[in-house]
């Protein structure tokens, strides 16, 4: 090959390597001639392993993909599947979309097949989050009605108990009972307030916020709280996060809820532990849809080395009133989810029983 031809080849190899989707190129005999880093990442197969090998041998376990490739190579048709495909990647199965197209020379001669793969993990997670939010909103309407109905009689009970307290002769033992009544009324009131907080629609007060500063202050406050000398807080903040639009009060509530849960989890588990807070910018082009969803997110991880959770529990934690604590309301995470979705972000959890838990809130980076 002469010099300029080599340059052209290099140029195209660079272009393909830079594409975010996985690209695998086969010749007419079904041998893999090219594979970009994104394809390595998605399939878990290295280029070295794949190149010059038969596609059908390397991807022997992927029947659906092999069929698409064979069909395109036999007929020259382009085939796409955005819905039904999953690929084995190590021990995991990940959802993918795939398109196979013929590789054509300028004179129309077919010299191979191109397979383009996209990892749909994040998109599927987002869809799941939307489904959950839908479920919540039905429940929410019901709960909001109930909360309003409870608030008035509750006020009546509180007023009556206070009157009764005043009427009792000094030193009466009955005062203790009234104290219990008032305390329990206070508790119900708190639940109702949280519930209303969860279910009433509201407008965000958007300002440019400094995320790292907000988190830093929360952590500082936590460190000062007395019982917390049993917990070490680690923080790793990405200093490149610019100020972005968000509701500071709500985000504070979000982080406080997550940190409070982490504290409660490690204290309950071993009496002490570590809580790590990480901020970072995530560019995820697979989440960008028709220009409506911003492609850059700020991710905030709150990790603890507490008891962790099994899959069954994870399925329930965002449901209002789900709690495993004797004094819990079960509303903390439901509120977190609401705050995040009001910001058009998402929240996910990664947890393993016996190891610990990481909650990740992803907020769109709107400048
Ligand atoms: N960091 C965590 N580690 C282990 N379990 C957790 C963690 N955070 C939340 N959970 C589980 O999720 C449940 C719901 O949490 P939440 O909605 O905040 O309500 P509450 O804290 O009042 O129980 C908790 O009762 C607990 O079982
Ligand atoms: Mg909680």
What does this structure look like?
With 367 residues, the chain is of the alpha+beta class. It has 3 domains: 3-119, PAS domain (Beta-Lactamase, 2-Layer Sandwich), CATH 3.30.450; 120-201, Helix Hairpins, CATH 1.10.287; 204-367, Heat Shock Protein 90 (2-Layer Sandwich), CATH 3.30.565.10. Helices cover 46% and strands 25% of the residues. It has helices spanning 3-18, 37-43, 47-50, 55-58, 63-75, 121-167, 174-199, 211-224, 248-270, 311-314, 332-342, and strands at 22-27, 32-35, 79-89, 92-104, 110-119, 207-209, 231-236, 244-246, 273-283, 296-304, 346-352, 356-364. A 5-stranded antiparallel sheet has the order 2-1-5-4-3, sandwiched between helices. The chain has a 5-stranded mixed sheet with strand order 7-9-10-12-11. Strands 6-8 form a two-stranded antiparallel ribbon. Helix 6 (121-167) runs antiparallel to helix 7 (174-199) and helix 9 packs antiparallel against helix 11. It is elongated and about 105 Å long. It starts with a helix and ends with a strand. The mean pLDDT is 88.
């Amino acid at each position: 090959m002469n010099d300029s031809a080599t340059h052209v080849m290099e140029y195209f190899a660079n272009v393909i390597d830079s594409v975010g989707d996985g690209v695998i190129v086969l010749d007419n005999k079904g041998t893999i001639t090219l594979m970009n880093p994104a394809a390595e990442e998605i399939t878990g197969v290295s280029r070295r392993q794949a190149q010059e090998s038969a596609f059908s041998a390397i991807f022997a376990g992927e029947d659906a993909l092999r069929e698409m490739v064979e069909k395109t190579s036999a007929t020259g048709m382009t085939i796409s599947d955005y819905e039904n495909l999953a690929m084995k990647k190590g021990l995991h199965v990940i959802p993918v979309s795939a398109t196979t197209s013929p590789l054509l020379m300028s004179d129309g001669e077919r010299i191979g097949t191109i397979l383009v793969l996209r990892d749909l993990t994040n998109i599927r997670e987002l869809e799941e989050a939307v489904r959950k939010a839908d479920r919540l909103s039905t429940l929410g309407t019901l709960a909001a009605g109930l909360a309003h109905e409870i608030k008035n009689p509750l006020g009546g009970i509180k007023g009556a108990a206070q009157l009764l307290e005043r009427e009792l002769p000094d030193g009466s033992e009955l005062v203790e009972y009234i104290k219990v009544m008032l305390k329990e009324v206070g508790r119900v009131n708190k639940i109702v307030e949280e519930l209303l907080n969860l279910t009433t629609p509201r407008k965000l007060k958007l300002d440019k916020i400094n995320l790292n500063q907000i988190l830093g202050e929360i952590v500082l406050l936590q460190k000062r709280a007395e019982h917390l000398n049993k917990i070490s807080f680690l923080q790793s903040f990405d200093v490149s996060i610019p100020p972005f639009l968000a509701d500071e009060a709500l985000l504070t509530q979000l982080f406080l809820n997550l940190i409070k849960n982490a504290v409660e989890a490690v204290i309950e588990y071993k009496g002490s532990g570590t809580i790590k807070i990480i901020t970072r910018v995530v560019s995820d082009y697979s989440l960008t849809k028709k220009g409506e969803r911003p492609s850059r997110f700020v991710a905030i991880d709150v990790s603890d080395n507490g008891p962790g959770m099994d899959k069954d529990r994870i399925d329930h934690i965002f449901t209002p009133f789900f709690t495993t604590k004797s004094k819990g309301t079960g509303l903390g995470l439901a509120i977190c989810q609401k705050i995040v979705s009001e910001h058009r972000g998402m929240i996910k959890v990664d947890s393993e029983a016996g190891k610990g838990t990481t909650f990740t809130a992803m907020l769109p980076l709107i400048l």
